[in-house]
UniProtKB/TrEMBL annotation:
Transmembrane segments: none annotated. Residues 49-58 have a biased composition (Gly residues). SUPFAM superfamilies: RCC1/BLIP-II (SSF50985). Residues 44-394 form the RCC1-like domain. Residues 1-30 form the signal peptide. Residues 25-62 are annotated as: Disordered. The keyword Signal applies. Keywords: Repeat, Signal. It comes from the Bacteria. This is RCC1-like domain-containing protein. The keyword Repeat applies.
């Protein structure tokens, strides 16, 4: 990674939250075509287009998928609150949308509605988008970070300001995967333990305390044998190697899946109830998803917009319930009261349910859904999927 010398510019306040990715871990990359030509792996986007977060060069809301401009070789996408990230198959990173705190990593604070290069990065293996900060896992196992640092979410040992260009996170080595959301960050190590840093108002750092920000990566207590992570807006899920799931953080909508709803956060990991045989997890604003090996999906937490996929709106479920009508899912993702699953039967189809006020379900409407509907992306196969605040990204 090349880090330009100008990276030390610091500026002022803000943060809130959104995102999520698919299964975590190292993203799938395309196999090369014959004669060495890379396979085409374009990106699509739909939903709210404020600040150009769909990357199509306009500010027009889209309730069906449109192409993200100029992206043809995408290995992974991720979504912040109002910006998008794409890791290309050549190991470089593109970003677009809102740039008020430098989340686009181009040395400026100017929004742009088409993808631009995140400066000084190559050899990237995975990306993770927080609300207004981002992480890149590099091939050598180190991590770069950029954007807002109000709560120390860049892991630099200090709080405040922002970094408009990527900087290395000190002390991180041999990292296997990264995750981010809101104003905090996570790193998974080869031994299955997890480090966390940044805002701890909801106990997401898993260190047994609530409220004190930590600007340096520190261990999540009592957690081992982790396979992958999902960072939500105030809670975290860890998929363990035995197929069970641990959760910690906010539980005011039962999003920890422990059979309780509590106003006080739970700052230490504990098992999600009645859940085994899990292949992937996703964490949204107030709810959680788990994909089981049999292709069914479990959901729990808040259901205001039908994001649990159980055929009703409202209420909470403090233990996992089965999403109706999904029997052959292969991946899951979650956003702001939205849920998504990819189909094993049809590689180009995205199943979606929950909030749809800006067309973020991609079904051609703005009607919220309590049961899965389909969005046709025109991609040959969707390999990576992510959701931000009112918008969705896919590539493959």
């Amino acid at each position: 990674m090349r880090l330009p010398s100008q990276h030390r510019r610091v500026i002022g306040v803000v943060a809130l939250g959104a995102l999520l990715a698919l299964t975590g871990g190292t993203p799938t990359t395309a196999a090369p075509e014959d004669r060495g030509a890379p396979a085409l792996r374009p990106a699509m986007a739909w939903g709210d287009n404020g600040s150009g977060r769909l990357g199509d060069g306009t500010g027009q809301q889209r309730d069906t998928p449109v192409a993200v401009s100029g992206l043809l070789s995408v290995a992974q996408v991720d979504a912040g609150t109002a910006y998008g990230l794409a890791l290309l198959t050549n190991g470089t990173v593109r970003a677009w949308g809102d740039n008020a705190r430098g989340a686009l990593g181009d040395g400026t604070e100017a929004d742009h509605a088409t993808p631009g290069v995140v400066a000084g990065l190559d050899g990237v293996r995975q990306i993770a988008a927080g609300a207004v900060h981002a992480l890149a896992l590099l091939a050598d196992g180190t991590v770069a970070a950029w954007g807002d640092n109000t709560s120390g979410q860049l892991g630099l040992g200090v709080t405040g300001g922002s970094r408009l260009l990527p900087v290395r996170v000190p002390g991180l080595r041999k990292v296997r995967a990264v995750a981010a959301r809101d104003s905090y960050s996570l790193a998974l190590l080869p031994d299955g333990t997890v480090l966390a840093w940044g805002n701890n108002s909801a106990g997401v750092l898993g260190n047994g305390t609530v409220g004190t920000d930590v600007p340096t990566p520190a261990p999540v207590l009592g957690l081992k044998n982790v396979r992958t992570l999902a960072a939500g807006s105030g809670h975290v899920l860890a998929l363990l190697r035995d197929g069970t799931v641990a959760a910690w953080g906010a539980n005011n909508f039962g999003q920890l899946g422990r059979g309780t709803v509590t106003a006080d956060p739970s700052p230490v990991p504990a098992p999600v109830a009645d859940l085994a045989g899990v292949e992937a997890v996703a964490a949204g604003l107030l709810h959680s998803l788990a994909l089981r090996k049999d292709g069914t999906v479990r959901s729990w937490g808040g259901n205001e917009d039908g994001q649990l996929g159980i055929g009703s709106f409202g209420g909470v479920r403090d233990r996992p319930v089965t999403v109706s009508g999904l029997t052959r899912a292969r991946a899951v993702a979650a956003g702001f009261n939205t849920s998504y699953a990819l189909s094993r039967a049809d590689d180009d189809i995205v199943h979606a349910w929950g909030r749809n006020s800006t067309g973020q379900l991609g079904d051609g409407s703005t009607v919220r859904r309590s049961l899965p509907v389909t969005a046709q992306t025109s991609l040959d196969q969707v390999d990576t999927l992510a959701a931000g605040d009112g918008f969705t990204l896919a590539a493959g």
